[in-house]
Known about the structure:
By secondary structure, this protein is mainly β.
Amino acid sequence: MKPAISLRAQQGLTAIALVVALQIGVPGGAKAQITGPDSVATGHLANSAEEYWPAVKDTLHNRFINRIKHLPIRSGRGFMGYGLHLRETYENYQTYYWGLGPTDRNGYLLHRAIGYADVRWNRHFRAYAEANSSTISGRTGGPRPVQDVNKLNFNQLFAELSWPLAPRAHLFVRLGQQALQYGQGTLLDLRDINVRRSFMGAKAIVYLGNTRVDGLAMWLVRNDPGFFDDGRDRTQWLLGGWLTHAYQHRLVTRLDLVYLYVHRDRTLFNQGIGAERRHTAGSSLYYKRGHWNGITEVEGQLGHFAGGPIKAWKAAQLVAYEVPSPKWRPVFTLQGALSSGDRNASDDELNTFNPLYPKGIYYGYVDNVGSSNVLVAHPRADVNLAPQIRLLTGYYRFWRTSLQDGVYVPNGVLLLPAVATGRFIGEMYDVILAYNPTPVLTMQATGVYFRRGPYLLNQPALTTDIYYGGLRVTVRI
């Protein structure tokens, strides 16, 4: 599967298609309000492309939001919406990656601005554009590759066509550059660090009653730090599907089924470097009973790496209890996960689980361990200290599943090699204090301590534990 035209050409063709469609329209416009699955107000979401803001009666409280989120066009047969997401972050690592990175006593600032425009021409056609500017200042050692700097580029730029298939069935087709966010973010997610991840290609979405099925054919978009210079990564692409079914049941509430095929020309594991062609199939089961809820997730992987076979897997379990206290709203959570590591680096079979394109931060706020070749136990307690102030606390213990494999960063790239002793990697404590005075404004303070275990102590380049402090202010309009 080889790309035929450049990313810039595809973006240009997408923009031309949007202009042409807006000029000629699409037959069969809705008379009052767009119907179908986009019919319920969502409010702000992590992925703004999935938001829906219907027309509501103006009040003093929501008048401004309504006027920028739902501006009627074409005599009310469609509408336009705009949004702005500003985030300013201060971070201070006394020791980065246990001493592998630079020491920065004064910390640094991360700056990010995301703006978007959403045009719902009628119930059949939609155009969405989202631009991002991410920069960093004051960091010793300069920006980190990929994650810190992208001066100005499109995160998303797509056209969407939709058709009703039956009274409870609807089809959507999206073409262009898009963000992918599914499930718990363990396989496909935004990577919501300073620079987000996006893909270029086609996505089809079918709603059948309580079932949603997504089909994907995408290239990864490479992050380049300049102005509108992102390029499609010709070495990485994915195909697959994601099914979600909602149940009206006293215990089981949702089932996710996923199949993804990922092709990478070059990937680094403890076993070596080579081309990777990996099939991932899995399921997630969500359930809730009274004040208890939980998620069970399992995934298996087959394929080929550097000419040899891939056999890998992962299982995860989360159980949470919400204490019935309207004032304090305490929630106690226990999470555990186990993923396979390579059993023998000298043979041609690879057993390392690859999380593909997950969240940038998954296990704790300072996620240096990832979800490959790891056993993690994670209890957590959250509580309201005041109506708009919430305290979140977490504790993590990490072990290597296989002593013949190393430690990987969240995206599955090898960080530290295998050593013959030291299964226990380390333990981490994090505390987050979040203040949400309005739906528009969020302020957050974070503290983290990561204490090294025998595996990290056996790595001569790692000289100290990790101490981290951070402050973040986010404004969403």
